[in-house]
Amino acid sequence: MCSVLQRRVPPRIVVLASGNGSNFEAIVNAARSGELSAEIQMLLVDRNCYAIERAKKLQIPWERLEKPWAESLKKRLEELNPDLVVLAGFMRILPAEIVERWKWKIVNIHPSLLPAFPGTHAIEKAYEYGVKVTGITIHFVDEGVDTGPIIFQKAVEIKKDWSLERLEEEIHKIEHRYYPLVIQKVLEGKWKIEGRRVILEEDIG
Predict the structure, then answer these.
(1) Ranges for the Formyl transferase N-terminal domain (predicted)?
(2) Does 91 belong to an annotated binding site?
(3) Catalytic residue list contains 172
(4) Is residue 127 domain-resident?
C-alpha cells in the first residue's frame, strides 16, 4: 500500500487548470459535501480562463502563475506544500523536476481511454475517428503527454445517434462523478504500483 499522506487532516489539494474549470468545481463541491475528505487549498492557472470565475464564485483562493510558468509553479508548490496536486484541464507538460519532486502526488484526468487519443481535443478526435467506445482515464503524471500509470478508467459507449456535443456532455458527467472518488482513494493510500500497473485496494464503481 502506498500511503500518500496522513500528515494533515484533512489533506490539502492544489488544483491546476487552464480552461473551463468544471472538474475543479466538481472537486470543490465534493469536498464541501463530504464525499471528498480534503481541503481545496488553492487554484493555480497559467492563463486567464473561466476556472478563475468558478474560484471566485466558490470563494477558493486562486493565482495566475507568473512567467516563466514552470519556475512560478515550482516555487508556489514548495510554498503551499500540498498533499496532492490535481490537474483539471491544465494544458501544460510538467517539467521532470516537478514530476520527480512530487512523484505519486500529481494526478490528471483525460477524456479518452488512454493510450488512445492523448493530448488535446481527445473527445473530438475519438468522435471523428468513429470509435464505438471511449471514456475517461485518471492517471499519475509523468514527464510525457498523458503517459503516466493509469489509476482508473471508465468507458462510455457512443450511441449511433449521438452528436459530438452529446458525447462531450456524457464524458463530463462521468469526469465529475469519478474524479473526486479516485482522488479520495489516492489520498487514503488505498493503492499500490506493480510495474506500470496501479492496483486499487477497492474497486470504484
Answers:
(1) 12-183
(2) yes
(3) no
(4) no
Q: What is the pLDDT of residue 114?
A: 98
User: What is the torsion angle, in degrees rounded to the nearest 10, for the CA atoms of residue 70, residue 115, residue 48 and residue 169?
Assistant: -160
Q: Confirm whether 105 is domain-assigned.
A: yes
- What is the predicted pLDDT for the residue at 8? 65
Cis-peptide, bond into residue 115, ω within 30° of zero:
yes
* Segment-wise mean pLDDT, segments of 10 residues, the chain, 205 residues: 58 97 98 97 98 98 97 97 98 96 97 97 98 98 96 98 98 98 96 94 84
Would residue 167 count as lying in a domain? no
Domain range for 87 is: 10-109+139-153+178-197
- Is residue 11 a contact partner of residue 38, using CB atoms and an 8 Å limit? yes
> Is 93 within any annotated ligand binding site?
yes
Is 197 annotated among the ligand-binding residues?
no
pLDDT at 7: 54
Domain assignment present for residue 166? The answer is no
pLDDT of residue 1: 47
Number of domains within the chain = 1
CATH at residue 50: 3.40.50.170
DSSP string, 98-159: HHHHTTTSEEEEESS-TTSS-SSSHHHHHHHHT-SEEEEEEEE--SSSS-SPEEEEEEEE--
Q: Element (H or E) spanning 199, and its range?
A: strand 197-200
Cell of 131: 470509435
Res 122: pLDDT: 98
Annotated catalytic residue: which of 110, 121, 139, 172?
110
